Amino acid sequence: MASEQSVEHFKGKARLPVFAVPKRYDIHLKPDLVSCRFAGAVRVSVDVVADTRFLVLNAADLSVKESSVLFKSMASSSKELHPLDITVVEVDEILVVQFDEVLPHGVGILEISFEGILNDQMKGFYRSTYEHNGEKKNMAVTQFEPTDARRCFPCWDEPAFKATFKMTLDVPSELVALSNMPVVEEKLDGFVKTVTFQESPIMSTYLVAVVVGLFDYVEAFSPDGTKVRVYCQVGKTSQGTFALDVAVKTLDVYKKYFAVPYSLPKLDMIAIPDFAAGAMENYGLVTYRETALLYDEHHSAAANKQRVAVVVAHELAHQWFGNLVTMEWWTHLWLNEGFATWVSYLAVDSLFPEWKIWTQFLDDFTLGLRLDALAESHPIEVDVNHASEIDEIFDAISYRKGASLIRMLQTYLGAACFQKSLASYIKRFSCSNAKTEDLWNVLEEESGEPVKMLMDSWTKQKGYPVIDVNVKENNLEFEQTQFLSSGSLGDGQWIVPVTLCCGSYSAKKKFLLNTKSEKLDMGELKSLSNGESNLLGRGNQQQGGRFWIKFNVDQTGFYRVKYDEVLATGLRHAIEANQLSETDRFGILDDSYALCMSGKLTLSSLLSLMTAYREELDYTVLSLVITIISKIVNVAADAVPEMIDDIKQFFINLLQYSAEKLGWDAREGEGHLDMMLRAELLTALAQLGHDITKEEALKRFEVFLNDRSTLLLPPDTRKAAYLAVMQTVNNTDKSGYESLLRVYRETDLSQEKGRILSCLASCPDPIVVRDALNFFLSPEVRSQDVIFGLSGVNREGRDVAWIWLKENWDHITKTWGSGFLLGRFVSSVVSPFCSAEKAKEVEEFFASRLTPSISRTYKQSIERLGINAKWVESIKGERHLGEVVQELAHRKF
Ligand code: BES
Ligand code: ZN
User: Fold this and answer.
1) pLDDT tens across 837-878, in order?
2) Residue 542 neighbours by CB distance under 10 Å
3) Could you tell which of 394, 404, 816 is best to mutate to test the pocket of ligand 1, judged by most ligand atoms within 8 Å of the CB?
4) Residue owning the nearest CA to atom 18 of ligand 1
């Protein structure tokens, strides 16, 4: 019995005990934006459901005086109990309140007053800074997910302890005060006003939010009358209208899709200048980085616009998936994030069909595949034993693999059945919590398919298979093994929904592969395709000249495919004859790239395959080509430095066709994807050192310096120009760098600042890279943005970046040490290296510096480094690579 235990009993536990559960919170907060402190009081209605002399809840970084804690039992004629003792267990972030008698069962009210600091760590209750009329000011903001509500008020800070919340704020009278619900009362008392908000429906603590500061807003109503507002800095409201419009329409899309309306009376979305994540789905008060909410007609790029739409759609998806139905524990985080990611594509597709966003989904898909090809990956359903482990699982596994598995399952079950099941899941678990299994059960009931058995193989073990396909005699044989980028053998096995088509998209076959290997009769497949083509009256075997088989049609399955030479050649011809869809062209290239990295395919073969993409014009496919180009350049420069100029020349030639089609200037009536593609192409050519592109870039940049609105350098092509500028910079002539800094300082648009930051460290001169890195740590760069700067370091700068990271490690851990951004420092500096010596050096440095919050990211980075190193060795040993490269570099397309 709990009443016999001591405080010791509650230490070192992953979860809070359940003998008392919160029902309602009445919270009063008084932030002081000048001294950056806050005072607070909370009254929690608690239901005591088992015998206990203790109340155990979360609290961290708060000062709580024993005399301020009181428990009033409502069950036992309002008996007041003063605690015998209170203990704060810092490592476990819990507050243990001990009484000298067993608490009466039933509802009681726990009252606690406390004080805290508005910190600068972008979590809990924190301060963000902005300027108003030239004056520096603070605003107060909350960010609670995953486990930081406890830094603002003592609470049962786990997603399954849902309760209602009634918030009251004391703030300076001239400021805007927002929380999850609408204001019910404002009382003015001199310079202070007391703002009371309506009580919320039941929800988890991580979704509670407060913002206090000076803001303007724009407002609109959704079709069913929900008031939607976008709040931003005074004077910037015109930048809020795009997101507002997206939000209003998206609410309607979800209402129809989930068959449940948005459940709160209002929805506010607000841009916060200092923000660790991209955005946060707080119920009714969604907070965003400025770059993810604000869109400026003249200075935002098409990619910025798309980002805003995707993030808004993602956060609004959480209002159902996450807020209304919440994961039971962080192990099921993917239910929140994987679903929000997947659903956001559905909404964006319905709002902007011309963006072909489902093709772009493959960017997410492939990032999921890449991370999950590491031995240091983790299962989607991951054990969480301590709060410090949670930050790290907001990763490509939970988001991108999660979303990809949902897409795979939806394809398998059919869109209509899937939607119906989701709607019934949402209805059934509204205002409550769910586990992964709960979702499978609903889907299984609605579809009659063995969903749980199928999906367990994907969510309970890490990794995914590669299917090896070979034609042997008259059979098509295939075998699944776990795919690992290192080339090692894994022992996983999956139930794989296999799809394939032969010779035409109407000749399709699908089945579940639930054994290690399987074979199909080739004759049967051929007749399938012949039958089809005869039926349609166009013998595509004759037309394309060759027979082809594409597995994983449309790339909806979370696996890779390795074809034998005959099949691979057939597919290459099919690409050249333009017989395959964008998604399949993407899949073939991405699988080949992954196989090459893991030593299963030569670089020569990969380069030859790439020639089939010379007339590619699809944005997503070409972006992949470009990503692969930059990875190959990185390793080839180490492996075969004598060939690197020829390799680059080949890549420049490969991009010529599309680059010439798009040029620098937008054509009348061109689309969103053209603008995004132009940006990618020019950036890639500038980075490959293409002279003509660089010269043009510099010319246009000169004009831009004198006229920031010049049509010669619209937002989409600026990054290419900035990169070209940084290539002209060296230690003796830093004028280009200084010009960029001037643009950085003069703009007040975060997207523009981000664009510049991502280019500053790309200089070939390491001394300048060092200047840039130091600039990132200066007060001129918000701590949320430093990772953008680091992402711009390229091969020439990577050694300096590593030295810089070591020298500044203490400072960096102090500033970023308590959030997930720290991991990004490690991964972006460590992963690009390609040698065993470097790995050793890195390991030595981190031996004494690892903390739980970066340990997984660190191990993944080291693994990536090792994979690069191995790849370098295998390229070095590749015979005939020189001849192939020679030939390709001089081939005119
Ligand atoms: N719930 C997350 C925000 C979050 C991330 C909180 C990490 C705590 C830790 C939010 O819904 C989210 O996923 N935001 C994404 C943007 C989205 C479009 C993928 C982000 O912050 O990048
Ligand atoms: Zn999310």
Assistant:
1) 999 999 999 999 998 889 999 999 999 999 999 999 999 999
2) 9
3) 394
4) 311
| CA within 13 Å, CB half, 44 | 26
* Nearest protein CA to atom 3 of ligand 1, as residue: 280
* Count of Cβ atoms closer than 10 Å to residue 448 Cβ: 10
Q: What is the mean pLDDT of the chain?
A: 95
Enumerate domains of the chain plus CATH numbers: 1-209 (2.60.40.1730), 215-320 (1.10.390.10), 326-348+359-459 (1.10.390.10), 465-576 (2.60.40.1910), 808-878 (no CATH)
Query: What is the pLDDT confidence band of residue 536, given thresholds at 50, 70 and 90?
Result: very low
Alpha carbons 12 and 14: distance in angstroms, whole number = 7
The catalytic residues are: 315
The mean pLDDT value for 89-100 works out to: 96
pLDDT over 70, % of the chain: 98
Confidence at residue 817, expressed as pLDDT on a 0 to 100 scale: 86
Q: What is the pTM of this model?
A: 0.97
Reference 589, options 556, 564, 555; nearest CA is: 555
> CA-to-CA distance for 406 and 335, rounded, in angstroms?
10
**Residue 318 known to bind ligand:** yes
- Pairing label, strands 37-48, 106-117: antiparallel
pLDDT digits (tens, 9 = 90+) for 694-740: 999 999 999 999 999 999 999 999 999 999 999 999 999 999 999 99
Residue 314 assigned to a binding site: yes
**pLDDT per residue as tens digits for the range 400-459:** 999 999 999 999 999 999 999 999 999 999 999 999 999 999 999 999 999 999 999 999
Pocket lining for ligand 1, CB < 6 angstroms: 145-146, 277-281, 310-311, 314-315, 318, 337, 340-341, 394, 399
Ligand 1 centre distance from Cα of residue 359 (Å): 22
Among 308, 337, 388, name the best residue to mutate to test ligand 1's pocket (greatest count of ligand atoms within 8 A of Cβ): 337
Residue 277 CA, closest ligand 1 atom number: 21
The span from the CA of 547 to the CA of 564, in Å, is 14
SS (H, E, C) 107-128: EEEEEEEEEEECECCCCEEEEE
Closest C-alpha to ligand 1, atom 22 = 278
